[in-house]
Design goal:
Blueprint lengths: L2 E3 L4 H6 L5 E6 L4 H16 L5 E6 L4 H6 L7 E6 L2 E7 L4 H12 L1
Parallel strand pairs: 1-3, 2-3
Antiparallel strand pairs: 2-4, 4-5
Length: 106
């Protein structure tokens, strides 16, 4: 299960991670975010040991959303070595997200 981050845990869990990280920026009221949630959970299990998968509620941590200029959700931001590697905005099929993940796991 993907761990939910907040403003207090984000930097430690994401920016200081020694393995790649994907963060799902979402909100409870967001329909496309709810559609994407099962995919995020599946990826969290499948990527265990290779990458970390987290969720961040933009309503509860707007400062982090603003820091990364998240204007639309769902937004998936991929981090490597504490830096943004790439991002996807919108609810995409699992295969598209998995391809993006694999792109920077090499």
């Amino acid at each position: 299960m993907a761990t939910v981050l907040n403003s207090n845990t984000f930097d430690e869990e994401v920016l200081k991670s020694d393995i790649p990280v994907m963060v799902d920026f979402y909100a409870d009221w967001c329909g496309p975010c709810k559609m994407l949630a099962p995919v995020v959970e599946e990826l969290s299990s499948e990527m265990a040991g290779k990458a970390k998968v987290f969720k961040l509620n933009t309503d509860e941590s707007p400062d982090i959303a603003m820091r990364y200029r998240v204007m639309s959700i769902p937004a998936l931001i991929f981090f490597k070595n504490g830096e943004v590697h790439s991002q996807i905005v919108g609810a995409y099929p699992k295969a598209v997200i998995q391809d993006k993940f694999n792109e920077y796991l090499k």
